[in-house]
Amino acid sequence: MFTRLYGQMAADWVNVAALIFAVVIVGLGAAYVGIYPRLFLLGLKNLRRNWLRTMLTALAIGVLAIMITTIWTILYFMDLISTERSKDLKVIVTYKWSVPSQIPMTHADYLDPSSSALLPGLRDERTGKPFYGPNDFMIWSFYGGSTDLTKMTADSILFFFVMEPDQIIPMMDDLGDLDPLLVRKLKEKKQNCLLGVDKLKALNKRVGESIKVTSFNYKGIDLEFDIVGALPEGRYNSSAIMRMDYFNQAFDKYARNNNNRPHPLAEKRLNLIWIRVADRDMFDKIGGIVEDAREFKSTYPVKVETASSLIGSFLEAYKVIFVAMRYLLVPGMLAVMALVMANAISITVRERRTEMAVLKVLGYSPDQVMLLVLGESLFVGALAGLLAAGATFAFFNFIWGGIPFRIGFFPVFRIPESAFLWGLAIGTLTSFVGCAIPAWTARSVKVSEVFSKVT
What is the pTM of this model? Predict the structure, then answer.
């Protein structure tokens, strides 16, 4: 957990800001308790005295923290996957002139480091070794179909990643920890497949059962599968993985059954080629070699881009939604909550004017009175925000398996560990903004005016 949290700190400035904010708040809170222990205990008694109002205020902050945490989780991961990273930098090779990309399967041979047909320019001139190894190479085709053509629904539709089994663990995002036993089961028979847990439930199937899929993007390539395992909870809940050799064999079978006439998409059945490189310089070097290769220019010309660039292009359609969520929805929610907090604390201060005057008569300074109100509000806000973030983390990650907000290949979004920092920052910030003016009002209470009205 701490390793993932450290990685999240390095990946996003918001997490760094939240961490700094959390450290400052905890430090100031500890200093407050240490310097003014009696003031802190008095604040706790005041919170217990009006228990209902305290609980309602904490509940309001908690709901805000939950809503913003879920929204910011989606924005955080969208930023993460669409931002180029120095580590795990990947070259994606696609067809240059159309979307979706469709290229011949032979294109993969020219880029496969294990193939004798590897482009000469992709080998080190001195050692003769490829610039990248077998674990840095992956090919994808996309096979879509339905288990029920008479009533095609979201539950009956299947979307397969067609790939080599040995490329799953080293190259698939979020599957680096996949149980190797599942890969071995996938390799036992060509018709074996892996399904996401949500898709298994939707199809009412279990591991060990079989399905028949009628394709809608490769007409006539209808396949039967044996389900040998479930993909882990998370990103691939609604996806499936099948073997590339079974996919290719189906095209050979189609040609035999049609007087050796190949399938119309036989020469365009490969969609993406992935190559992981060490750094940007190697990316530029390999990209130039691939785009200039005559083997590609004479048939299906290709283009090279980073994974973040490709995903960014795909997410362009959602840009307005993300901008609205980031710059309108989240700030608007924070502003509304701050106003609610200001109103609630203002009512509390007005009700306690006599108490504030008595405290001053007993020797408390105006600054201590202000700190009392600030301390009460910030304590409730920080604790409510932190508990709400923890509840959100536990509920979505351990019960629901993530936030069910489908965008392309991302059916769910898991709450990151840094959400605890978000919750603490949200609760504390809204409480501070909301209580700043009421706390100053409490500081300015005049003893003579208060007692002149007491009859």
Answer: 0.70
